[in-house]
Design brief:
Layout (H helix, E strand, L loop, with lengths): L1 H168 L2 H34 L9 E2 L6 H11 L2 H8 L10 H15 L4 E2 L2 H7 L13 H18 L21 H11 L3 H6 L1 E9 L5 E8 L1 E5 H8 L12 E3 H8 L3 E3 L5 E3 L4 E3 L1 E9 L3 E7 L9 E3 L3 E3 L12 E11 L7 E7 L5 E5 L2 E6 L7 E9 L2
Parallel strand pairs: 1-2, 5-11, 6-12
Antiparallel strand pairs: 3-4, 3-10, 7-10, 8-9, 11-18, 13-14, 14-15, 14-18, 15-16, 16-17
Helix pairs in contact: 3-7, 5-6
Length: about 550
């Protein structure tokens, strides 16, 4: 029993112990759970703190970036302001420099104006001095003539007195014989003087081979003018026709009158050279030729032709109407009759009769193939030498200046070569009613009696090239509507020495009325020569058409 009780007690103890152990284990588990919960809470807190720290860090970064951006923007603004300030300063400096340049240009213009005025004053003074000298010389000549006349009169008076005394001593028969002899001598002298007067009248009306070559004095950088005057003077058709004019009004025909004065002095002056002062004064009315600056012969050539033609037309000084229709083959082309009427109406002065020619420009629309023809009057044919040379020679860079050569016929061929109009340079087609690609061909419809050719090498950087041209030139291949053979003879060449046509020196190389060639360098004359000999660079060519 006791054993059973002991066993029961032991079993109860064991149960109590097991229960206590279970309770403790549960407590421990709960403690562990609580600990785990606490740990999780702490971990969550830590995570929250880390997230908050990261958010704060990002905020700080953003704030820093914004600050940096703002600082950079401020710096950029400052830099821009600095650049603006620098730009303003540079603008001020540039403005000052430009202002100085403008002031310099204005100063130069003022100096030019002053120079022109001074040149005019000096020219007037020089003209006065030369006028005085000429007046003195003329006065001396007149004085000599008067002294001779006075001496003759005194001699006559003394002769009469002596004759009277001798006649008293001699008988009446001798008196009668002497009187008859004296009368015959007087008649012979009168006949001689009358013959001389008639010869002088003929000379005034016509320049011939007996007129010697004379020079023109340089009166202040006038070589360009002198060369043009010499070439015009040696066109006898022009000079003789203008010499026939009588009672010329200098106010109405100033250029014509001045040119006639030059012709008279070159033809009949006793001096070897004359001063074309009146002609220089007339062209100086145009601002291009005023003062004592060098100028261009081609520009003056056109100006003289236009001005004299205008003066003669305005004053109705016309020559016999020489129609040109007999030189035209056909009248079939559109517009030919119109240009003939216009051309005939213009050719009523000696300028138009000698120097006017007709060119045609044939335009073709490359879309509809419509053709239109434009007729134009011309006085000078322009040949661009550099363009002609480059179209002929391919290896242009390898050719030396001394080896650059073209023929005048190459220039005529280039003149009538087709020219195309495309892109931004189209032609207007009347048929298409808009601008289209086109082509043009320029031709000489009829060349003038006196043909002037300009060898254009450029104004300043002159293109160096030797142009071959004959003394006898035939252009029938390049002329559309003529009945004659188109033969021309060279009568004058204006040559240039120097790098620029606005400087250097111009000379005239002319065939004189005696058939020989002379070189006229202002007042200096070289020659004679049977053929043309080149001295300088050919600039303007003067050809006369064979009738």
């Amino acid at each position: 029993m006791q054993n059973q009780s002991n066993n029961e007690q032991n079993s109860k103890k064991d149960k109590k112990d097991s229960n206590s152990i279970d309770i403790k284990s549960e407590q421990i588990k709960n403690i562990i759970k609580d600990d785990n919960k606490n740990e999780k809470k702490e971990d969550k807190k830590q995570d929250k703190n880390e997230v908050e720290n990261e958010i704060e860090m990002e905020k700080e970064k953003k704030e820093k970036e914004e600050k940096e951006k703002k600082e950079k923007e401020k710096e950029i603004v400052k830099e821009k302001e600095i650049e603006k300030e620098k730009g303003k300063e540079k603008g001020k400096e540039i403005g000052k420099e430009k202002g100085k340049e403008i002031e310099k240009e204005k100063g130069k213009e003022i100096e030019k104006e002053k120079g022109k005025e001074i040149g005019k004053e000096k020219g007037k003074e020089i003209g006065k001095e030369k006028g005085k000298q000429i007046g003195k010389e003329i006065g001396k000549e007149i004085g000599k003539e008067k002294e001779k006349e006075i001496g003759k009169e005194i001699g006559k008076e003394k002769g009469k007195e002596i004759g009277k005394e001798l006649l008293k001593e001699k008988d009446k028969n001798l008196k009668n014989n002497n009187n008859n002899i004296n009368a015959n001598n007087i008649k012979k002298k009168e006949n001689k003087t009358n013959l001389k007067k008639e010869e002088n009248k003929k000379l005034i009306l016509e320049i011939n081979e007996k007129v010697p070559p004379r020079g023109l004095n340089n009166i202040g950088a006038t070589c360009y003018m002198n060369s043009v005057l010499q070439c015009f003077y040696h066109i006898y058709e022009l000079s003789n026709e203008l010499l026939k004019l009588k009672n010329i009004d200098n106010d109405k025909l100033p250029m014509t009158s001045a040119y006639i004065n030059v012709v008279k002095n070159l033809s009949f002056s006793p001096k070897n050279s004359i001063s074309p002062s009146q002609f220089k004064d007339i062209i100086s009315n145009n601002e291009i030729f005023e003062g004592i600056e060098a100028n261009d012969s081609k520009t003056l050539t056109l100006y003289v032709l236009d001005t004299i033609n205008e003066e003669l037309n305005d004053n109705k000084i016309i020559i016999e109407n020489k129609k040109i229709s007999n030189r035209i083959r056909t009248l079939n082309e559109k517009g030919t009759e119109r240009i003939l009427k216009f051309f005939n109406s213009q050719k009523n002065t000696i300028i138009g009769d000698l120097f006017d020619g007709v060119k045609t420009s044939k335009y073709t629309c490359l879309k509809c193939k419509d053709i239109s023809i434009d007729y134009q009057l011309f006085n000078i044919i322009n040949f661009p030498i550099e363009q002609v040379f480059y179209e002929i020679h391919e290896n242009k860079k390898k050719i030396k200046d001394k080896d650059k050569i073209i023929d005048i016929k190459n220039c005529f061929m280039n003149e009538e070569a087709p020219k195309y109009f495309k892109d931004n340079n189209k032609i207007y087609c009347d048929k298409c009613k808009k601008e289209e690609d086109g082509m043009s061909i320029n031709k000489i419809y009829m060349a003038p009696k006196i043909m002037i050719i300009f060898l254009d090498r450029g104004m300043y950087n002159r293109f160096k090239c030797n142009v071959l041209f004959p003394e006898e030139l035939t252009i029938s291949k390049f002329e559309e509507k003529t009945n004659d053979k188109g033969k021309y003879n060279l009568i004058g060449v204006i040559e240039h020495l120097g790098p620029s046509s606005m400087g250097g020196h111009f000379i005239a190389n002319c065939r004189h009325f005696d058939g020989n060639w002379y070189i006229f360098s202002d007042s200096s004359i070289s020659g004679p020569s049977k053929n043309y000999k080149k001295y300088g660079e050919p600039y303007l060519l003067f050809y006369r058409r064979e009738d």
